[in-house]
């Protein structure tokens, strides 16, 4: 099984963030333990004397090289299409990749994407040759519009960034899967525990992007492994074909010819 | 003289300063060797254009570096 992002096959269906870890070393160990080939990162202003980010950058590069992976810069913090486009172009120069996790935030409290600015930015970036991975809400029409624009990957949220609330609206997520069968769907943001990721994979999602759930765990390295296994299990379960729930009980063990008097004809 | 802003900080510079020259003033020698990208007045400025881009009064440069992200 593999995940494909704009024709690039990947062996892992987990995409992982590089923020919020207790230390750069734990970040590196957790990313390696996750097996994720795609690592997200960002750009930020920095004071002239500060070089702390350089260590992180080196570690991320080492992780990506070791997992034979890819960088996925994001446009975190952008609130307009113009800001996001500028940041994407800056990211492309530094990181030498056309991939961009497009974030355009419309609400400071929920960090909810602004759908209108998001569409505008996606349109500009796609024309500019970017391979856009838009972070969006679980709104079917928005996802459809992004797909129609040319986004081959769509990344609806499970719940607001960093909340760990899991799948807020499974109905919406299932509907998006059913209505966009050819899109690569990656559930992004709000995942709290491995079972959340497993559930999304059982719905037929193609991958999971997460950060806080691993970085803020008591043991991030162990949690990274847990997510890798839950995503694998959920994906395998989806491919294997999950049985339909039934309203009435059915015995799992055949009762015919067993020596019990409850059988038809018994006493 | 003109005033420009680099990452929000005001700098007084002589006229006819290029982006390359301004960055040499702003960045430490160690930082000049690291990865960074530049926006001029909110628009991406490609690295190959730094030497030929002259700064004007009240211009704003943003110099961004890689950091962790989710």
Offer a quick outline of the entry.
Chain A: It catalyses: [ThiS sulfur-carrier protein]-C-terminal-Gly-aminoethanethioate + 2-iminoacetate + 1-deoxy-D-xylulose 5-phosphate = [ThiS sulfur-carrier protein]-C-terminal Gly-Gly + 2-[(2R,5Z)-2-carboxy-4-methylthiazol-5(2H)-ylidene]ethyl phosphate + 2 H2O + H(+). The complex is a heterodimer of chains A (267) and B (70). By secondary structure, chain A is of the alpha/beta class.
Plain-language structure description:
The complex is a heterodimer of chains A (267) and B (70). By secondary structure, chain A is an alpha/beta fold. Chain A is built from 9 helices and 12 strands. Chain A has helices spanning 24-34, 52-66, 81-95, 115-127, 140-149, 170-179, 194-202, 212-215, 220-240, and strands at residues 3-5, 8-10, 14-17, 38-45, 70-73, 99-102, 105-107, 112-113, 131-136, 153-156, 184-188, 207-210. Chain A has an 8-stranded parallel sheet. Chain A has a two-stranded antiparallel ribbon with strand order 1-2. In chain A, strands 7-8 form a two-stranded antiparallel ribbon. In chain A, β10, α6 and β11 form a beta-alpha-beta unit. In chain A, α3 (81-95) packs across α4 and α7 runs parallel beside α9. The longest helix of chain A is centred in the last third of the chain and has 21 residues, at 220-240. Chain A is globular. With 70 residues, chain B is of the alpha+beta class. Chain B has a 5-stranded mixed sheet, with helices on one face. The radius of gyration of chain B is 12 Å and the shape is globular. The termini of chain B are far apart. The model of chain B has no long low-confidence stretch (mean pLDDT 93). The A-B interface holds A 17-21, 27, 40-46, 48-49, 51, 53-54, 56-57, 60, 73-74, 76, 82-83, 85-87, 89-91, 93-95, 161-162, 211-212 and B 7-8, 26-28, 30-31, 34-39, 42-44, 46-47, 62-70.
């Amino acid at each position: 099984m593999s995940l494909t992002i704009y024709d690039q096959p990947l062996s892992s269906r987990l995409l992982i963030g590089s923020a919020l870890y207790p230390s750069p070393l734990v970040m590196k160990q957790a990313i390696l333990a996750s097996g994720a080939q795609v690592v997200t990162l960002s750009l930020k202003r920095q004071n002239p004397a500060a070089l702390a980010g350089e260590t992180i950058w080196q570690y991320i590069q080492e992780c990506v090289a070791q997992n034979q992976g890819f960088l996925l810069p994001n446009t975190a913090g952008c609130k307009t299409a113009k800001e996001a486009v500028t940041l994407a172009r800056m990211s492309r120069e530094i990181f030498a990749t056309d991939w961009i996790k497009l974030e355009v935030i419309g609400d400071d409290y929920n960090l909810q994407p602004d759908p209108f600015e998001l569409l505008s930015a996606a349109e500009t970036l796609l024309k500019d040759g970017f391979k856009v991975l838009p972070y969006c809400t679980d709104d079917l029409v928005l996802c459809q519009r992004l797909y129609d624009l040319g986004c081959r990957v769509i990344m609806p949220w499970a719940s607001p960034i960093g909340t760990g609330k899991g799948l807020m609206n499974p109905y919406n997520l299932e509907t998006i899967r059913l209505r966009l069968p050819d899109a690569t769907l990656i559930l992004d943001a709000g995942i709290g525990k491995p079972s959340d990721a497993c559930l999304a994979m059982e719905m037929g999602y193609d991958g999971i992007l997460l950060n806080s759930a691993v970085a803020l765990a008591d043991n991030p390295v162990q949690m990274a492994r847990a997510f890798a296994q839950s995503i694998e299990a959920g994906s395998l379960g989806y491919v294997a074909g999950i049985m339909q729930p039934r309203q009435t009980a059915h015995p799992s063990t055949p009762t015919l010819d067993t020596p019990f008097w409850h059988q038809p004809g018994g006493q | 003289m003109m005033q420009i802003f680099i990452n929000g900080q005001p700098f007084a510079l002589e006229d006819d300063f290029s982006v390359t020259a301004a960055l040499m003033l702003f960045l430490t020698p160690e930082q000049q060797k690291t990865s960074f990208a530049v926006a001029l007045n909110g628009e991406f400025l490609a690295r190959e254009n730094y030497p030929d881009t002259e700064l004007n009064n009240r211009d704003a440069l943003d110099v961004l570096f890689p950091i962790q992200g989710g």
